[in-house]
Write a structure and sequence with these properties.
InterPro entries: Pept_tRNA_hydro, Pept_tRNA_hydro_CS, Pept_tRNA_hydro_sf. The chain is of the alpha/beta class. Helices cover 34% and strands 23% of the residues. Strand 2 and strand 3 form a beta hairpin. Helix 2 (64-75) runs parallel beside helix 3 (108-117). The termini are far apart.
Length: 179
């Protein structure tokens, strides 16, 4: 069983934020896989389909690792069967990249995960672009996508759905450079 995790912040206020693109993808996958909610424990909302567990941590981004570790330990999931979907400032809006392991790149959600389970898991990096000035980063990631940007991002969701089926082949088949 693979664990697919979308990173984001819980609550309506953050729903369309750039930082919540992981949650957006998980919502899409839950619908497409006719998944049912199986738990609100594990410091997150956990859904199950025939092939996957889908997790939306409710700990806020900076503590995402706590939720993932609880699910990983309970279901005895190996890191190689964990896929984390997250926003990436270093990628152009609408870009899509895949990797296993590596550094957090300054992403606080990934730092939390790395500190609790290590960094040897798969990542699906969704480009959200970067603000012009470094001091604008926090406000930028916590701001909503425009309608046009959201349409660009949503075009990636079917690609991500295909990529999770065989994540090892994903870099060659589903990488995108942006909108």
């Amino acid at each position: 069983m693979k664990l697919i995790v979308g990173l984001g912040n819980p609550g309506k206020k953050y729903e369309k934020n750039r930082h919540n693109v992981g949650f957006m993808v998980i919502d899409y996958l839950i619908d497409n896989y006719n998944s049912s909610k199986i738990s609100s424990k594990f410091k997150g909302e956990l859904f199950k389909s025939n092939d996957f567990l889908f997790l939306k941590p409710t700990t806020f981004m900076n503590l995402s690792g706590e939720s993932i570790k609880l699910v990983k330990d309970f279901y005895k999931i190996d890191n190689e069967d964990i896929i984390v979907i997250h926003d990436d400032l270093d990628l152009k809006l609408g870009a899509l990249k895949f990797k296993r392991g590596g550094s957090s790149g300054g992403h606080n959600g990934l730092k939390s995960i790395d500190s609790l389970i290590g960094n040897d898991y798969y990542r699906i990096r969704v480009g959200i672009g970067r603000p012009e000035r470094k001091e604008e980063v926090i406000n930028y990631v916590l701001s909503d996508f425009s309608d046009e940007e959201l349409e660009c991002i949503k075009k990636l969701f079917p690609l991500i759905e295909e990529a999770i089926k065989d994540i090892k082949k994903a870099p060659n088949l589903y990488t995108r450079k942006g909108c």
